[in-house]
Amino acid sequence: MLEIKDYNSSILHEISFSIKENENLIILGQNGAGKSTLAKVLSNLIENDKVEINNEKICNMDSALRAKLINYIPPKLEIFDEYVTLREFLELSFISKVDNDKINKITKLLRIKKLEDKYCKSFSSGEKQLLLLASAIIHDAKITIFDELTANLDINRLKEVYDIFNSDLLNQKIIITHNLDLAYALKYKVLFINDGIIEFFGEHDEFFNNENLKKFYNESIQKVNNHLVVNL
To answer: What is the DSSP secondary-structure string of 43-86?
Structure first.
């Protein structure tokens, strides 16, 4: 179980919630609401003593254990060396011994094998997002937090990512997204944050009703025949 209790900062206020083991979560909210900050707090990239996994504070864990339990995937690929190739990047994603067969399997699955000897800096924005997904699968943490992974993906690739999220390739997932179609389709538990305050935390069906969509999205979105429609 992942739990945060009474976290406060200049950005986040009175943040408390928990998700059970193997329970997935969607985090929604407008730009600047505090979603990415919350993700970094949950993964201890912003150090704190308010987050626990299985009743143990993650701030007290050594880095190796914490890496096995929770992994934060940023919204953009960050390259520490402009000459790192895709394959080298994925080799660095393993917590322990490199498994070349697994790399081959994942690059074929995501159709990025042809890129494996190319420098990551040369990739398109969509290819970089797929590399981040491949890295997350290889890392294989107990909980993976994706921060806007689907940004810059075309429709076909978005469907592939949706299928992976619904597969057993990843364990427990926390997904930050502005893509309401994806959020609606995944049917995960929902947390909605606004100005650093949790305004909703609950079940998928409870959030995605017209009353809440009107409340949180100012009548710009409504549900019609089980589809989300933008009011233009």
So the answer is: TTSS--S-EEETTEEGGGS-HHHHHHHEEEE-SS---SSTT-BH
pLDDT at 224: 80
How far apart, in whole angstroms, are the C-alpha atoms of residue 55 and residue 195?
Answer: 28
Alpha carbon 202 to chain centroid, angstroms? 18
| Neighbouring-strand partners of residue 230 | 221
User: What is the CA 17 to chain-centroid distance, rounded?
Assistant: 17
Whole-number Å distance between alpha carbons of 157 and 49: 38
Label the pairing between strands 25-28 and 172-176: parallel
Whole-number Å distance between alpha carbons of 118 and 98: 19
Quick: pLDDT tens for 157-197: 999 999 999 999 999 999 999 999 999 999 999 999 999 99
Task: Label residue 136 by pLDDT band (50, 70, 90).
Answer: very high
pTM, two decimal places? 0.94
* Lookup: tokens for 114: 């042809």
Side chain identity at residue 92, one-letter code: L
Phi, psi dihedrals of residue 177, rounded to the nearest 5°: -155, 155
- Copy the structure tokens of residue 158: 């978005």
